[in-house]
Structure to design on (477 residues):
């Protein structure tokens, strides 16, 4: 019987909020804690790595002096008194990271491997601070680097975990600590190859670590504590009237996070689904709020579009030409080229006339993919079977998501009607065969306008009924 408690960057950033974290931990039976780096630290470390690669030693020193001072200060304030173990650990970490940055500055090149080692400072430091804060309140706690648990491949910057090995290690490393009545405070985001080289699982992946540990330990629940009261009907920074959604199915949550709802890492739901473990998104700053419960199936609540989400910084590639129609294997050629370039495609749409294929990819890969496609399709271009390969950017993908869309006639008409009235020009459309998602491309300048138009059409028209508060949140009062 364990509960995973994951605290994001803003939840570990000040002594006051760490006090809240400690109260939540104290109120939870057999907790396993997972922490992110303090807010802004991962970005600052990436900045330091880039500055080092550019030979800007002064910038590196400035960033590291600020980071180490703020971590030392946070440790003092959060733990209240000297914690020798954590002080020494922070000192070692700072020395190691500075040495890594010096090597990068000498070589003037920062590989993904070096960057992973550098950014691991963030989570390693925050786990020490939170463990010390718990100890200072009489809660036996121990920082545990996930490099001892999460075994990954060597795709630095976005490594894939080896699940079975990781699950086995989660049990051998963590169960004895929990069994002794201690709280393990595990680093999110990082792992290591079988050879012990530090890796990271991709930006925002501490949620993923939490879900992986939940599956490995067969936890009762995986509670993701953040700075908003659950998954909201839209990004609250973009839509003023966004409201928390009480219940989501795993599939809805996966679609939302895939299309940009930053509140949950896209891959975080999968290990939890497979293990049948409910995931809750809760607010560290308002721990009594009911938050969002994500379960295998969400019961129908009468809503159609539960949430509208968006992702900017993308490019749209269109392969156009009347001679493409009916050529078998043409789409395969396009996708093989994309795969060979190592570019991930976020959305695909093909008109039934088969005269164009549209691919949405990260904006900074669009020109490279265009060049690769032009090389691959040189013959077709010469014969005018393919007219041209076009790139439009920056564009955004907006997605309207909700199980209630399935089988409800007229949803697309309402979506596109609302966009038309809002003066948003839609560039391309795709609907997943699951029918729980309609996604479309707009120019990035129209991103917020499009989200607000759909949210106003579906989001504010029907109050979402609230769910009973989760037991774990109410025990923390
Ligand atoms: P953490 O550091 O706790 O992991 P993140 O910054 O990764 O937190 O995610 C929480 C943030 O996600 C919120 O502060 C909010 O601004 C943003 N966000 C974007 N879309 C949504 C959404 N649909 N619901 C809730 N939050 C969202
Ligand atoms: N610290 C990492 C990041 O900023 C992981 C996380 O916060 O989930 O991406
Ligand atoms: Mg996050």
């Amino acid at each position: 019987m364990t509960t995973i408690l994951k605290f994001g960057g803003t939840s570990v950033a000040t002594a006051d909020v760490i006090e809240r974290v400690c109260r939540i931990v104290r109120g939870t039976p057999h907790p396993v804690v997972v922490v992110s780096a303090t807010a802004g630290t991962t970005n600052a470390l990436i900045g330091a790595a880039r500055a080092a690669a550019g030979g800007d030693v002064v910038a590196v020193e400035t960033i590291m002096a600020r980071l180490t001072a703020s971590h030392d200060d946070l440790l003092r304030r959060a733990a209240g008194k000297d914690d020798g173990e954590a002080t020494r650990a922070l000192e070692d970490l700072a020395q190691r990271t500075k040495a890594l940055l010096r090597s990068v500055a000498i070589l003037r090149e920062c590989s993904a491997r070096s960057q992973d080692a550098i950014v691991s400072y963030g989570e390693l430091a925050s786990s020490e601070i939170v463990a010390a804060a718990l100890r200072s309140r009489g809660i036996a706690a121990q920082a545990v680097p996930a490099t001892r648990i999460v075994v990954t491949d060597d795709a630095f910057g976005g490594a894939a975990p080896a699940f079975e090995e990781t699950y086995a290690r989660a049990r051998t490393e963590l169960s004895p600590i929990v069994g002794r009545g201690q709280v393990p405070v595990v680093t999110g985001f990082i792992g290591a190859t079988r050879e012990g080289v530090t890796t990271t699982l991709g930006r925002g992946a501490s949620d993923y670590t939490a879900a992986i540990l939940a599956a490995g330990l067969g936890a009762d629940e995986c509670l993701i504590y953040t700075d908003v009261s659950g998954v909201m009907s839209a990004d609250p920074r973009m839509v003023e009237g966004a409201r928390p959604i009480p219940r989501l199915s795993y599939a809805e949550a996966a679609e939302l996070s895939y299309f940009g709802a930053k509140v949950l890492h896209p891959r975080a739901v999968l290990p939890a689904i497979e293990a049948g473990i409910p995931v809750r998104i809760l607010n560290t700053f308002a721990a009594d709020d009911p938050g969002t419960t994500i379960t295998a199936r969400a019961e129908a609540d009468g809503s159609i579009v539960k949430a509208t989400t968006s992702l900017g910084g993308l490019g749209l590639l269109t392969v156009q030409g009347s001679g493409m129609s009916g050529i078998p294997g043409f789409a395969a050629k396009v996708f093989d080229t994309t795969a060979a370039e190592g570019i991930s495609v976020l959305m695909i749409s093909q008109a039934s006339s088969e005269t164009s294929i549209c691919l949405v990819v990260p904006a900074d890969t669009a020109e490279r993919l265009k060049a690769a496609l032009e090389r691959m399709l040189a013959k077709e271009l010469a014969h005018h079977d393919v007219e041209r390969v076009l790139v439009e950017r920056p564009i955004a993908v907006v997605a309207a998501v909700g199980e209630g869309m399935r089988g409800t006639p007229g949803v697309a008409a309402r979506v596109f009607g609302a966009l038309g009235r809002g003066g948003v020009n839609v560039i391309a459309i795709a609907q997943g065969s699951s029918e729980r998602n309609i996604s479309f491309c707009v120019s990035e300048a129209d991103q917020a306008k499009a989200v607000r138009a759909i949210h106003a059409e579906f989001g504010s028209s029907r109050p979402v009924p609230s769910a009973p508060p989760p037991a774990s949140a109410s025990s923390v009062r």
Remarks:
- Residues 8, 204, 207 surround magnesium ion (ligand 3) (CB under 6 Å).
